[in-house]
Amino acid sequence: AALGRFFATARARAARAAATPPTPPKAKRVPHKVLFGAVDGENRGTNPMRPPIERDDDLFWLRDDDRKDPEILRHLEDENAHTEAHLAHLKPLTKRIYDEIVRSVQESDDDLSFPWGERFEYFVRTLKGKAYPIVCRRRRGGEEREREREEVVLDVNEVAKTLKYCSLGAFKVNDAHDVLAYSVDANGYETYEIRFKDLNTGEHLPDVIRGAAGGVSWGHADGEVYYSTQDESHRSNKVWRHAMGTAQSEDDCVFVEDDELFSVGFGRTSDGSHMLIESESQETSETRVVDLRSKPAGEATLMQPRRLGHRYYPDRRGDRWFVLTNRDGRINFDLACAPLNAPGEEHWRAVGTHPGAGDAFEWREGRTLETVRAFRDFLVLEGREDGFSAMWVLRLLPDDKIHQGEDGTSTDARGEDGTSIDASSAPGPVAAIASWTKTEWPSENCCVYAAVASASLPCVSANQNFDASRLFVAYQSLTTPKTVYAYDVASGAREVVMTMPVRGYDQNKYVTTRVEVSVRDGTRVPVSIAYRKDLRKKNGPMLLGGYGSYGVSNDPSFAREDVPLMDRGVVIAIAHVRGGGEMGRYWYEKEGKYLKKKNTFHDFVDVAEHLVTTGWTSAATLGITGRSAGGLLVGAALNMRPELFRCAVAAVPFVDVMVSMCDSSIPLTTGEWEEWGNPNEEKYHAYMESYSPMENIRRGKKPEVLVTSGLFDPRVAYWEGAKYAARMRDAATNGAFGDGDCEGEGEGGEAPSRILLKTDMDAGHFSATDRYKRFKERAYEHAFVLDSLGLSGAKPAWAKR
Question: Which one from 236, 628, 767, 792 is the annotated catalytic residue?
Answer without folding.
Answer: 628
